[in-house]
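Subject: sequence -> structure tokens, single chain

Hey, anyone have a minute? Need the predicted structure for the following. Not urgent.
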Amino acid sequence: MTETIDFTAQTRLVARLAAHTRDGELEAPTPCERYRVRHLLGHLVGLATAFRDAARKNLGPTTDTSPTAALPDVPADWRGVLDRNLAELAAAWHSPAAWQGETRAGGVDLPGAIAGRVALNELVLHGWDLARATGQPYAPDAASLGVSYALLAPSADDPGRGPLFGPAVPVPDDAPLLDRVVALGGRHPSWTPPQPG
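Reply:
Had a minute. Here:
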């Protein structure tokens, strides 16, 4: 029997963070060096669409495009679009068929079971990015953090881990699991927005 992972808690958390992001924060910096908050939200809109379609095995433009192909931006109605896409993403990965066979995301062919874990990890890391950039509290559920840690930890020392993550940041072994996940994702757990002036 294929193991499925429930996306509901994490998609709802990201949707809540987005709902509480003010328009005046769209130009704020984020822990992702190239991204302002508007680009991060645009990326979340796109990745929710791509991984929803990857779960459905609905392969095409949304699953073929590399996330580094262009700097993403928010559509005019981004709040509604993101909320809907996140709910559809959770529903799509609820199906056992999503975790079986092969699929594609970001132009990369990979097993459905791996694509699902990558999708959830993207939501965990970018949820932290958004929370930090907008000064919101962030407490993902333990199961989602565990999926991210299990995905990221084996490649922590791999110099060829690819362009999606920076080098892992050293943290104490007894650091909270969220800090360890964030650090494995190439972020400094202590990151805060730079102060103006």
